[in-house]
Design goal:
alpha+beta, four-stranded antiparallel sheet, Rossmann fold, single chain, 17 strands, globular, nine-stranded mixed sheet
C-alpha cells in the first residue's frame, strides 16, 4: 500500500522570453530550510521565478511516494501577435500532425515528454476561470506549452488592487474587464494558441457550456461555486481543477474522475503485477521492451477520484494516517483552516471579516474541523489561526508562482498521460515552504461510480447543488424540479455538520 501523503516540489513557472540552460536553472534552485520543496532564488536569497524557465517536467515517484522532477527546461522564445477572437475550437493539428515550425518551436519540451504527448497538448481546449494572480501563472505556463485554446472567464473589472501581483495588467487596464485585459497580453506569448476572453458570469452559464472543454480550471472561487462547476464537469466527464491562494497559503484540488496514464521506467528485479496498488490506484497493464540494451517497463495505471464537495467537506484522512500518531502530527493545520474557510463561505456567502463575531465563528469551526480529522489539538494554535486569518484574500506573487507552476505542470502531465497526477488535494504552507498532498476521499465508490444513482453519496452530492434551481441540470439528473437557491453542496450547515458550526 503506497502512502497517500506526498510532498509536492515547488517547480516555479515558465518565464518568457528568458531561456536558460538546465545547468543554469539547476544552479538557481536553492533548497529552502525544511527540505519539502525548493524555490528559485536570486543572489540575495529572495524567491524569484524570473529567468528560470521551468516547464512542466517529467516526474517519477521514489519509494516513499514523493514527487521527484527528472528534468527542467526553458521554452524557446515566442513571437508577438495580435489578439484572436472566436469560440473555442480544436487545434488545427487535431492531435494528428505537428508542423515543422511547431517542432522547432517546441523542440526542447518534445524531448522531455515526447511527440505523442505534445500532440495531445496542442489539441487541448482549456477553460480557466477568474483572472487573478494564480490564474495569470497558470495561463502563462499553459500557453507557452502550446495548448490548442485557452478560454478565460471573469465578470469582474480590473481594480488598483489587481496590479500588485498580476503581471498581465497595468494602470491602463483599470476599469476594463479582467479576462479581456489579460487575454491581450497572454495572446502575445504564443501566436499558435487561441486565447478567448469571456466577460460573463460563470454561474450564469448553462451546464452544457462546460462540455466543449477538455479540462476546466477554477481559481479563487468560493466553495459553493466550485461545487457547482465540478458537478457540471462530472456530468460531461470533463477533468476539473480547483485552486486558490490566500497570502502565504494555498491549495490545489483535482477531480480527474478516472484517469489512465503510462509510466515508463527501467525494469526492476521485482516485476510489477497487475492489480490494485492502493485505494485509488490500479495497475491495469504491464509491458516490457528493449531500448539501448536496457529492459524498459511500461506500466499502465488508473487513478480514481472524488468530487470537490466530498473531498473538501466529508472526507477523512486515509486510514494509514489514523493508525499513526506521528503522521497525524505531521499533517498541516492549514487543511483544517481551509475547510473552516470553505464552510464559512457556504454559510455566510463571504469571507470572514475582522469583527469579533466572525473571528469567534471561524476559530470554533477550524477547531471542529481539526477534531473531525482526528488531528492533535495542540497542532492548531492561536498563532496559526491568526496568521491564516490575516492572509485570507491577499495575493503574494511567489506563492502564486509556485501553485500556478505546480497546477500547470499537472495539467500537462494529465494531457500527456505519461506521469503520475496529483491525488487529490495539495495544501501549500509558505511559512515552511511545504506543499503536502493528501488523498481525501469518502467511504464508498470512487471515480465514475460516484455518479451512479445507487451510490449513497448521490443525495448529498447532487440535489442541493443546482444554481437557483437549474432545470437543465436537474433534468439531466432525472428531476427537472430539483434545485436549491441556497446552493449548499452538502445541505445548509448546522451545529453538527462537518466543517460548520
Amino acid at each position: 500500500m503506497e502512502p497517500q501523503q506526498q510532498t509536492q516540489p515547488a517547480t516555479g513557472s515558465i518565464e518568457e522570453p528568458a531561456a536558460v540552460s538546465s545547468a543554469t536553472a539547476a544552479s538557481q534552485q536553492q533548497p529552502i530550510q525544511g527540505g519539502a520543496v525548493s524555490l528559485p532564488q536570486d543572489s540575495t536569497g529572495v524567491f524569484t521565478s524570473q529567468g528560470v524557465g521551468l516547464a512542466p517536467s517529467q516526474q517519477t515517484f521514489d519509494s516513499n511516494g514523493v514527487f521527484s522532477p527528472t528534468g527542467m527546461m526553458a521554452l524557446p522564445d515566442q513571437h508577438v501577435m495580435a489578439g484572436m477572437n472566436g469560440a473555442a475550437t480544436e487545434h488545427p493539428a487535431n492531435g494528428n500532425t505537428i508542423s515543422a515550425d511547431e517542432i522547432a518551436l517546441y523542440d526542447r519540451q518534445i524531448r522531455l515528454w515526447g511527440m505523442k504527448a505534445q500532440k495531445k497538448i496542442q489539441a487541448a481546449n482549456v477553460l480557466l476561470i477568474t483572472m487573478k494572480a494564480l490564474a495569470n501563472e497558470i495561463a502563462k505556463n499553459l500557453v507557452l506549452a502550446g495548448i490548442g485554446s485557452l478560454t478565460l472567464v471573469d465578470d469582474q473589472n480590473v481594480s488598483e488592487a489587481d496590479l500588485g501581483a498580476q503581471f498581465f495588467l497595468s494602470e491602463e487596464n483599470i476599469g476594463q474587464n479582467r479576462a479581456e485585459a489579460a487575454s491581450r497580453e497572454i495572446q502575445k506569448l504564443n501566436p499558435r494558441v487561441k486565447v478567448i476572453a469571456d466577460s460573463g458570469s460563470i454561474m450564469e452559464k448553462g451546464v452544457s457550456y462546460f462540455s466543449v472543454f477538455d479540462i476546466v480550471i477554477a481559481t479563487d472561487l468560493n466553495a459553493t461555486t466550485l461545487a457547482f462547476i465540478n458537478t457540471a464537469t462530472r456530468l460531461h466527464h470533463r477533468q476539473f481543477y480547483a485552486a486558490g491562494s490566500h497570502g502565504y497559503y494555498g491549495y490545489i484540488f483535482c477531480d480527474l474522475i478516472e484517469h489512465d496514464f503510462v509510466l515508463q521506467r527501467d525494469k526492476a528485479n521485482v516485476s510489477t503485477n497487475v492489480g490494485q496498488e492502493s485505494r485509488t490506484r490500479f495497475v491495469t497493464d504491464v509491458k516490457t521492451q528493449k531500448e539501448g540494451g536496457k529492459t524498459i517497463e511500461l506500466v499502465a495505471k488508473r487513478e480514481l477520484y472524488s468530487t470537490w464537495d466530498l473531498a473538501a467537506e466529508a472526507s477523512a484522512l486515509p486510514v494509514e494516517y489514523l493508525k499513526s500518531p506521528r503522521r497525524l502530527r505531521a499533517v498541516t493545520p492549514f487543511l483544517s483552516c481551509l475547510r473552516a474557510l470553505w464552510a464559512f463561505e457556504q454559510f455566510h456567502n463571504r469571507i470572514p471579516g475582522h469583527n469579533r463575531q466572525d473571528l469567534e465563528y471561524f476559530t470554533k469551526s477550524a477547531t471542529q474541523c481539526h477534531s473531525l480529522l482526528s488531528l492533535p489539538g495542540d497542532t492548531l494554535n492561536s498563532e496559526i489561526l491568526r496568521s491564516f486569518l490575516q492572509n485570507i484574500g491577499s495575493e503574494i506573487a511567489p506563492v502564486t508562482a509556485v501553485l500556478g507552476g505546480q497546477l500547470a505542470q499537472d495539467v500537462i502531465n494529465v494531457l500527456g498521460q505519461n506521469q503520475q497526477p496529483i491525488q487529490n488535494m495539495v495544501i501549500f504552507d509558505g511559512n515552511k515552504m511545504e506543499a503536502n498532498q493528501y488523498a481525501l476521499h469518502p467511504e464508498g465508490p470512487l471515480g465514475l461510480a460516484q455518479l451512479e444513482p445507487a451510490n449513497p453519496m448521490m443525495p448529498a452530492m447532487m440535489p442541493t447543488m443546482m444554481p437557483m434551481g437549474d432545470p437543465q441540470m436537474g433534468a439531466q439528473l432525472g428531476d427537472p424540479q430539483m434545485g436549491n437557491p441556497q446552493m449548499f453542496p452538502m445541505g445548509q450547515p448546522n451545529m453538527t455538520h462537518q466543517g460548520a458550526l
